[in-house]
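FYI - complex with GLP, inputs then prediction.
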Amino acid sequence: MPDAEAAAAAVARQIAETVATKPDAVLGLATGGTMEPVYAHLVRAHREGLSFARVRTVNLDEYMGLPPDHPNSYHSYMARHFLDHVDIPRGQSFIPRGEGDADAAAREYAALLERLGPVDLQLLGVGHNGHIAFNEPGTPIDATTRVVRLSDETRQANRRFFAEGETVPAEAVTMGTAQILSARSLLALAVGEAKAAALSSALDGPVDPDCPASYLRLHPSCTIFADKAASSGL
Ligand code: GLP
């Protein structure tokens, strides 16, 4: 893809097509700067007539220790960029709970994912260090939904979203690699030079826990969109 905008538009088109052909699809959603233009395209598609009324959505992860109305919680992110602007009834969108007992929050989310059944299309970003959701390097392929400690690298990369002096949470609840890989289709998006090293280990390195994004290669239906800058190491 020539640039980040074209890659985001292509990803949004695939999601819109999934919803148009299967109006009650289960969509797996992701957060991060990379996804903001994808949601902008989907909101536009909604204004042009695409309904999400029967869709169910599950998010990949949430910081532990941030209440839902904290501006940097993924609950807030999803409301701001997508959920407040489309017709998905609130009871059909799920994000892990970031408050209270962390292990209980992870258990509840795992049970919810089990109940909902397979995700039809899972959207994924790629971390600077090759993480997917908050499955950091070192995560085995069969990891389940759980509480994780964030690496210094990830906290540093996500620092830019937090106010000066504010602490980036050290823990999160994340969908496990096992759940991610059980989706019917995966759709990953990586843009910008800062993702070039992660993308090249994911696609050209060994499939191993050092780079959880390398597991995507084992999925029978995974499409990865990247712009020129993120593809520069391939
Ligand atoms: C966070 C999220 C990931 C996301 C990554 C990349 O760590 N948990 O799911 O892929 O950030 O974010 P960005 O798109 O801002 O680079």
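The pocket of GLP is lined by residues 30-34, 60-61, 125-127, 133-134, 154, 158 (CB under 6 Å). Strands lie at 26-29, 56-59, 61-63, 93-94, 121-125, 146-149, 171-174, 185-190, 222-226.
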